[in-house]
Design goal:
Elements (H helix, E strand, L loop, with lengths): L10 E7 L2 E7 L5 H8 L18 E4 L2 E4 L12 E3 L12 H9 L8 H14 L5 H7 L11 H16 L1
Parallel strand pairs: 1-5
Antiparallel strand pairs: 1-2, 3-4, 3-5
Helix pairs in contact: 2-5
The structure holds FE2/S2 (inorganic) cluster (2 copies).
């Protein structure tokens, strides 16, 4: 559901996305997911459930993993947001993008941006997670395709590469 109306008027809201300052005109209760996808053309965050249950819309906001379908854009004011478009250095893949590809962790791809952001968040907190910690770290992200084992392997492999680099 798109909250494009309401009693309050549109206002200018500024935040940083993938390191760049952005200002949007939006209703305060518009979903961050819609603003990212429709105003900023950052379509990596996907809408799955629209109810905070699946994690396909996940982004990082000030380093916290949030479901952008649940975040009113006003709440993002002044924050630093990272979307899947911003995880890799220009011209190369993030190690998680590489290992998801190699391990078959991405099939239809709907869950993948959220999975990668959740995995990146996990590896920032725990550079050498156990399998159980990976499972737990990704428990807010649903995947209908892979059965999860390839995703867990991809995260474990990324952790190995990062710690041995
Ligand atoms: Fe946001 Fe499912 S679309 S959690
Ligand atoms: Fe299809 Fe995860 S790859 S939902």
């Amino acid at each position: 559901m798109t909250h494009s109306s309401g009693r309050s008027a549109k206002s200018e809201i500024s935040f940083a996305v993938n390191g760049e300052p952005r200002t949007v005109r939006a209703y305060p209760m518009e979903r961050l997911l819609d603003v990212l996808r429709h105003q900023l053309q950052l379509t990596g965050a996907k809408e799955g459930c629209g109810e905070g249950e699946c994690g396909s819309c996940a982004v990082l906001m000030d380093g916290m993993l949030v479901n952008s379908c649940l975040v009113p854009v006003l709440q993002a004011k002044g924050s630093n947001i990272v979307t899947i478009e911003g995880v890799a250095a220009e011209g190369s893949l993030h190690v998680l993008q590489q290992t998801f590809l190699e391990c078959g962790g991405a099939q239809c791809g709907i869950c993948t941006p959220g999975m990668i952001l959740a995995s990146a968040h996990l590896l920032n907190q725990k550079p050498e997670p156990t399998i159980e910690e990976i499972r737990e770290g990704l428990s807010g992200n649903l995947c209908r395709c892979t059965g999860y084992s390839q995703i867990i392997e991809a995260v474990a492999e990324a952790a190995r590469r990062r710690t041995s680099a």
